[in-house]
Amino acid sequence: MARFSEVLTIINGRNQKQVENPSGKYPIYGSGGIMGYADDFICDGETVIIGRKGSINKPIFVDRPFWNVDTAFGLSAKRDVLLPKYLYYFCEIFDFERLNTTVTIPSLTKANLLNIEIKLPTLEEQQQIIAVLDKLTNLISLRKQQLAKLDELVKARFVEMFGDCLTNPKGWRTRCLEEIAEVGSSKRVFVEELQENGIPFYRGTEVGALAEGRQITPELFITKKHYVDLCEATGAPQIGDLLMPSICSDGRIWVVDTDKPFYFKDGRVLWVHAIDSSYDPVFLLYTLKDRITTDYNSIASGTTFAELKIFALKKCRIFDVSIMLQNEFGAFVKQTNRSKLTMQQSLDKLEVLKKALMQDYFM
């Protein structure tokens, strides 16, 4: 084992205003990625970026010279004992959040970073570990690209059949969403009412993951009696209902596909239910997805972050097309989703394997 203080140098970032130039040669990095370009650089290539404030648990590996802003540290490995990519993979699995001492914006200090301990095998062994993790990382990236291509295929098919929802080039008649479905949310569940087991309680995070076809492990629950009481007041989510996080600029909408009981967070999850029989839920999902992703800022509102509101969602315009045409599109989506499921399962297995190996290598 070795401390960071023994095997790397921490490079402070600086304000970008003095060097920022749209035609600059060097990227300017913050903890969230590229923020612009500069005429000068602070860090050499093959350096790990870690947030000093904000996104402190999302390291970035940069393989060319760059300028880092003052909210991001550059971690430069002493290459006679530590390979930069090995350092990056360690940072990927290490929980920097546990070093945070603030109650507002997550923050790291140099002193805390320098005290971190890292396993330090020989350079040859480090290279072998890098080779394994690089291969898994590339496969994971490929699966994500393939999933994105399948999503693009469905979107292209929607536009081919119906046109985009913003300009309506085919001149379809439209109806407000509130004319064809109930639009709302749930009854409030207070923090003190949450349990360690019982009926699953979903937040926007879980609903967004389900919309992406991912498997989730519920973290919060309510009692069965509380669930029954809530459902008596609002009704229970049904197969075919639509649920979406209120912060949903990427159109992550879940068509409920289970009859297992669950409940969800008020306000942060929006609920489209009691859908008119002349509308297919899958067609409705992609109509809303197209509308939201194309023109999110005109639909969402908020002083700190753009959020979908019930009143705005109710006014979303929906194409009034025949159920036969909707079903044709739905069949195409179903066929594509089979491929997505296979791809997602492969991705999940690769991510689990990578995490297990990293735990073994570094922890």
Brief summary:
This protein has about 375 residues and is of the alpha+beta class. It is built from 11 helices and 18 strands. It is globular and about 70 Å long.
Q: In order across it, which strands form the biggest sheet?
A: 2-8-5-6
Structural class: alpha+beta
Q: How many helical stretches? A: 11
Rounded mean pLDDT is: 91
- The helix content, as a percent range, equals 25-40%
Q: What is the topological layout?
A:
Blueprint: E1 2-3, H1 4-7, E2 8-11, E3 26-30, E4 33-38, E5 47-51, E6 60-62, E7 67-68, E8 72-77, H2 84-93, H3 110-114, E9 117-118, H4 123-162, E10 174-176, H5 177-180, E11 182-184, E12 199-202, H6 204-211, E13 221-222, H7 224-234, E14 242-245, E15 254-255, E16 263-264, E17 269-273, H8 281-294, H9 296-299, H10 310-314, E18 317-319, H11 323-362
Parallel strand pairs: 3-7, 12-16
Antiparallel strand pairs: 1-9, 2-8, 3-4, 5-6, 5-8, 10-18, 11-17, 12-13, 14-15, 14-17
Question: In words, what does this structure look like?
Answer:
With 363 residues, the protein is α+β, with helices and mostly antiparallel strands. The chain has helices at residues 4-7, 84-93, 110-114, 123-162, 177-180, 204-211, 224-234, 281-294, 296-299, 310-314, 323-362, and strands at 2-3, 8-11, 26-30, 33-38, 47-51, 60-62, 67-68, 72-77, 117-118, 174-176, 182-184, 199-202, 221-222, 242-245, 254-255, 263-264, 269-273, 317-319. The strands form six sheets. The protein has a four-stranded antiparallel β-sheet with strand order 2-8-5-6. The protein has a four-stranded antiparallel β-sheet with strand order 11-17-14-15. The radius of gyration is 24 Å and the shape is globular.
